[in-house]
């Protein structure tokens, strides 16, 4: 019997295949982690942007707001330039500003809790977003 052993093999061995799959799984895991971090950073930036938009609006010189009162955890503001009343309140999971005429503008989304206090010429806003509590003090004179 004449058997020829072919020393030239075709294909991959089992060890080479497992090693290749290990490298691919590590790469996919790193890509998934990177996208998760990017999404988290994007949500944080969006949250900061909404907070600054809220603060810019209630402290804006364009409206020149004066605080009227807080009733039923709603902040009542009066715009001296527009001579119009506004209400800032939490509705479901957002903080919105509305007028007596109707219509509203959402200011901050994904709100877990929100409270307002008036202390002399300051409005103190306490807002809880995604497990973090933020407290802001805005200088708004009280309308008499």
From TrEMBL:
Keyword Oxidoreductase belongs to the record: no
Source superkingdom: Bacteria
Keyword Glycosyltransferase: no
Lineage: Bacteria, Bacillati, Bacillota, Bacilli, Lactobacillales
GO cellular component, one term: cell surface
UniProt source species: Fructilactobacillus sanfranciscensis (strain TMW 1.1304)
Bilayer-spanning residue ranges: 12-35
Keyword tags: Competence, Membrane, Transmembrane, Transmembrane helix
Record's subcellular location: Cell surface
Full protein name: Competence protein ComGF
Protein's GO biological process: establishment of competence for transformation
InterPro entries documented for this protein: ComGF, N_methyl_site, Pilin-like
